[in-house]
Specification:
This protein has 375 residues and is of the alpha+beta class. It is built from 12 helices and 13 strands. The relative contact order is 0.16.
Length: 375
């Protein structure tokens, strides 16, 4: 370890404050960075508020250089995932570092040594610190615009640090841009009308007044539809309930859609949320005391949405269900006054979903990379 560098586990309230606020130092001159809510990040570090931290051991660390905080990392193990995959896999999350490879190396050394002590045989990341869709993967393409809600953003030198240390690409995740200035295309509308006539399904918005029953449907569709992904398994009801609690506060019902067969069987699901990053960019991490006023003011000015969940039951694939979910999401977003949408993130090896995203008019414009290293 280089002279003047020391690692400290996050154990005190002061440590947590430094960990949470460090990005303000890293990104202070980056106009595309969107500050997260400080309250949300503190909740992420709290096992009472974050279900992932109750699924296995974890550790958050800070690195200091000449007694100044210059980097951070989180590591842990999801034992539920490991049982399902029959692996001893650790995860890495919330990595941040100044542009100094010695700092990054110290973080990797400490984090991976801790994982080895827990019995991990490999590490993957960056992964979400909450088993959600946030902070998953490093941005490797698309540094010229701010991230859309829940997507990662990082300096362009981060991938170099990972690769210099010996991390290898595990897989990429894609984000597609949709221009909604004139609404969905006529070609897409006609195609969706044709598959409606042929297969007699319907698309409806979520009923937030009956959220408990809707969560049961969401869990059913996800469990039936989720592919065999290397780093994810279907969420538990506890995780779905935690996400639903957030969803109820943020959702536009017209953007959370179910596809159902003629008999009322749930056969597809898509979830899009307004791009609240356009609001967070003005809050500097704080809702109170005056941020809440800014929140409601800028909420009215949101011009985009992100589709971050789209599942179709296996027996209903190749019948235009994905196209219909894309179409109605775009149509409803256009009616709400949105001028763009993002479909993300889609694993590169999910060929069918990537094809559907392109057929719906998407342009690949951002790529996020998940790395792997054997221990």
């Amino acid at each position: 370890m280089s002279a003047g560098i020391r690692i400290k586990p996050v154990t005190t309230k002061s440590d947590r404050n430094i960990f949470v606020k460090l990005p303000w130092q890293i990104y202070r001159n980056d106009p595309n960075w969107v500050p997260p809510l400080l309250m949300d990040m503190h909740n992420t570090l709290n096992p009472r508020k974050n279900a992932l931290l109750r699924l296995g051991p974890y550790c958050f660390m800070l690195v200091f250089k000449r007694e100044q905080p210059v980097g951070r990392i989180g590591v842990g193990m999801d034992e539920r995932l490991n049982r399902a995959k029959q692996k001893r896999m650790g995860y890495l999350t919330l990595f941040e570092s100044v542009e100094d490879y010695s700092v990054a190396r110290a973080l990797f050394d400490a984090g991976l040594a801790w994982l080895r002590e827990q019995g991990a045989e490999e590490v993957t990341g960056p992964q979400s610190p909450s088993n959600g869709d946030d902070y998953r993967g490093l941005l490797v393409k698309g540094f010229d615009s701010p991230p859309v809600l829940l997507n990662s953003y990082n300096p362009s030198y981060y991938p170099k640090f990972f690769e210099q240390y010996g991390f290898e690409k595990h897989f990429d995740r894609y984000a597609y841009f949709y221009d909604l200035t004139n609404g969905p295309s006529e070609r897409l509308r006609k195609g969706v009308e044709a598959v409606h006539r042929r297969y007699n399904f319907r698309v409806r918005p979520i009923n937030l007044k009956n959220l408990r029953q809707e969560m049961v449907l969401i869990k059913d569709i996800v469990e039936r539809s989720m592919p065999e992904w290397p780093d994810m398994i279907p969420p538990s009801m506890e995780e779905i309930e935690a996400e639903a609690a957030k969803l109820k506060q943020l959702a536009q019902p017209e953007l959370v859609l179910f596809a159902e067969s003629e008999e009322g069987e749930p056969i597809g699901l898509s979830i899009a949320l307004p791009d609240y990053n356009q609001v967070l960019a003005h809050l500097n991490g704080r809702l109170f005391p005056f941020g809440i006023i800014k929140f409601f003011w800028y909420k009215r000015k949101i011009k985009g949405a992100r589709v971050f969940v789209l599942f179709v039951a296996p027996e209903w694939r190749k019948r235009g269900i994905s196209a219909a979910l894309y179409y109605y999401t775009m149509r409803n977003a256009y009616r709400l006054g949105y001028t763009f949408g993002e479909g993300s993130t889609i694993h590169e090896f999910n060929r069918a979903m990537n094809l559907d995203a392109r057929k719906a008019g998407g342009e690949l414009y951002k790529i996020y990379r998940v790395y792997m290293k054997m221990l």
